[in-house]
Amino acid sequence: MFVIMVYDIKEKRVAKILKISRKYLTWIQNSVFEGDITEAHFVKLKHELKKAIKKEEDSVVFYTFRTKDYTSREILGIEKGKSETII
To answer: How far apart are the C-alpha atoms of 52 and 32, rounded to whole Å?
Structure first.
């Protein structure tokens, strides 16, 4: 499945949420991740995030798609989070 994840996390927990999210998805820009993920990894991601956030203060939103085929992305301005090749 293809997932887009956005979050609004209190500053003191952002680094932890960023670290967890990068294990499963690709960072796109501030508070936004996307990527193909298996059902099992999606369950793990949500479990780790539930343990790391405070439900009264933080928010994580997932948009799930069966496949990336029916999504498109258009960027206006600079592209953040693109992967760079290091030689």
So the answer is: 17
Confidence band for 23, pLDDT divided at 50, 70 and 90: very high
Structure tokens given for 6: 């956005």
Three-state secondary structure call for residue 35? strand
Class of the CATH domain delimited by 2-70: alpha beta
Adjacency order of strands within the sheet including 2-8: 26-29, 32-36, 2-8, 59-65
For 21, other C-beta atoms within 10 Å of its C-beta total 22
Q: Count the neighbouring beta carbons within 10 Å of the beta carbon of residue 62.
A: 16
**pTM of this structure:** 0.81
